[in-house]
Amino acid sequence: MSTQPQPIPQPIPLPVTAVVCLEDRAQIERTTDLELSAGVQQLRLGPISALAVDRTLHAELTGDHRASVLDVRIVRAWTPHGPQPTSDDSALRLRAHTLEEEQLALGRRRDRLNARLDALGRLAADLLRDIAEGSGFGETVESRWTRELDRIDGERDTYGEELRSMEAESANLSSEIADTYRALDLAEEQPAELLGHVELTVQAAEAGTARLRLTHLTPCALWRPAYRAVLDGDSLSLETDAMVWQRTGEDWTDVRLTLSTARSARAGEPPRLTEDRLTLTDRTAAERRTVDVEFREEEIAELGPAPVVGLPGVDDGGEARVLHSPVPVSLPTDGRAHRVPLSAVTCAARSEYASSPELSPLVTRVVGFDNASGHALLAGPVDLVRDSGFTGRGTLPFTAPGAPVELAFGSHDDYRVVRQSEESRDTTSLTQRTVITRTVRLHLSRFSAPGEEGGQVVSLRERIPVSEVSAVEVRLRKEACAPEPDEVDADGIARWDVRLAPGGHRTVTLVYEVSASGKVTGL
């Protein structure tokens, strides 16, 4: 049995059958059946995208056939474009292709006219032979012979004139095509396309069919989650989609698509340990006499990825998440966003009207529901739809399966909120203690249509400062509040549930004190 590799055959098609789309690249899987002969042989497969990453190339043979992969590699070569135009071609090249198509159609019409003229010539010869034979036998039908000869001559003149016009048009087209290609030669040079092929060396114990599975990573592909929330009464339908972009150089046709948040480009090495020296110094006399404080605005939020400029990354809560498309999908390599449906769920919704006058004078409808999709909801944009149609676009935060989540479905113009704030400062002469009293009044009004009935509860929220040092105390003056807040949480957010009748109005008053000792500065 010879062990010399056989000559490289024609390339074997190697289609894409499955894709795992990562945050900034894609893992491509290709499968095909190979007809192997006994011994060592070298196969050429493809073409594939030239962007394939060589070091991630992996090939394996599956099935009952006894064969093994000895070597696999990607070879690349510049290949001229095919004769068919593409969307990337220039207007001049597209014009040349259009003129060639017109010339081809004109040639077909000219061939048909020549065939008709040949048929008319044979018909005229047959008629003249019929006249000669009839005259020899003494049969004369001059009227019929004259009518037939006139009809044939008329059709030959008509088709002949049409053929001459077509010849002139064909000459003009040929001249225009020649001018166009001369302009192309001066203006641009048709670039070749870089294509890759897989060279596979296998060894088989016997002839037969084996199934090849080949995988590799490819850049220029990414995905991001997107959602569509439809509010219908007390139920909410949430559709989870994936926006996929790919310009890998080859189309994905009827592939099994998997979406993953794994970051394969991130190094798996632990961080380097460096020394962190801590030095203790004595406070100065001025530092011991005073406590420097300041008001600080702090956003209440959970830990997550740092915001970036441009397209944000995928927030997966620190754990790699995997989502699957329920049906095979086809994605062209055009670099545009394509929406791929992943899942849809309908769940019960809880609605409330809420307002934070310090941030916005609007009353917003907030809808809460539990994540019943069966998978984690990754952070992403959500299209909001309710009875009146599309109402806007919001942001869905990362939500674990079964966890509650809230969405704001736009403001209501029939409410108006006015916020007024007053502040007074007093210092005691004996203890030099500073007391800052702040009074906040919230005026809430409802403008209802004639005939509207029923009250509506609006949840008002106002914040109270939270002290982080013992030298500064914050106290809520409940006796001066009208009415007293229904709840004050650990972050200092006071909440009132105010019921308004149609056309009604209410005023809510909040009073709190910020007290600091004499050695506190910065207030």
Task: Report on the architecture of this protein.
With 523 residues, the protein is α+β, with helices and mostly antiparallel strands. The protein folds into 4 domains: 16-80 and 193-218; 91-187; 223-264 and 314-411, no CATH class; 415-521, no CATH class. It contains 3 helices and 27 strands. It has helices at 91-136, 142-187, 285-289; strands spanning 16-21, 26-36, 39-49, 58-62, 67-79, 193-204, 208-218, 221-232, 235-246, 252-260, 291-292, 322-324, 329-331, 338-348, 350-355, 364-370, 380-386, 389-396, 404-411, 415-427, 434-446, 456-463, 472-476, 487-488, 493-500, 505-516, 520-521. Strands 1, 2, 4, 7, 10, 12 and 13 form a 7-stranded mixed β-sheet that branches. A 6-stranded mixed β-sheet has the order 19-16-15-22-25-24, with no helix packed on it. Strands 14-9-8-17-18 form a 5-stranded mixed β-sheet, with no helix packed on it. Strand 20 and strand 21 form a beta hairpin. Helix 1 (91-136) packs antiparallel against helix 2. The longest helix is centred in the first third of the chain and has 46 residues, at 91-136. The termini are far apart.
